[in-house]
Amino acid sequence: MTYLKDCARSSYRAYIRSTAAPPWLVPELTFELLGRKQKAAAYCAYVEQGIDNEIATYYSKARLGPILGTDNFVNRSLKNCHGLDKVITKELNPGIA
User: Does this model's pTM top 0.70?
Assistant: First the structure.
């Protein structure tokens, strides 16, 4: 992953511990999901795997959905978020009814 290691605008360098993470980036959450002791090495290995067919198919679509996952997961997530857009809009723009 030479390109990512050299790219100043990528968070990759913070994940592999070659630079400090900015305040908004919390690598520990990702490291916990990887579940390995060699955190930077685990992240590096994960990134070097590339993308699988599901991800490639998702990004090849002309219009991307807001949620990536199985149909069941997407449907459950959308049900849980029903009306959330109105709540967010109201919080960001208190003058909107």
Answer: no
